[in-house]
User: What shape does this take?
Amino acid sequence: MKETEFSIYTKWIFVLLTIFNLQACEIEWDDDRPRYPGEATDMLCYKIWSDTFRNNQGFTVTQELRFWADGYGEETLRTVYPDRTQIETFPFEWRWNSYHYDALIWRYRDGAETYFDQLRLDFSTLSGRFGPDSVTFYNMGRF
Assistant: This one.
């Protein structure tokens, strides 16, 4: 049976569409999120992650997180009152709570634990659910 010019073009179009569709199955990294285990820790540690918000009384609070690669960290709360500034520091031990590096857990010295779930980490922001709240911390530079 003789192939027509139309059927030859149809086969080539089918082959080209198949090739293009296979390329669409690749995993693409369209941001600067971690791609391997050590990179997630490197992106997290030795930086000051800062967020500013108003507490229940309406006072401005700056919350800073610092992580060291050895599994220790520090949370600092700086609350500005009309007559003074109160600074509280809470050391903790931390670890990744997921092989996908999308959750952290840390334990304060008094034994209380905090979870940072739905974590999204890139070079400039650290965001997710910190306890019951959705938060975004900004990279303020290395310490």
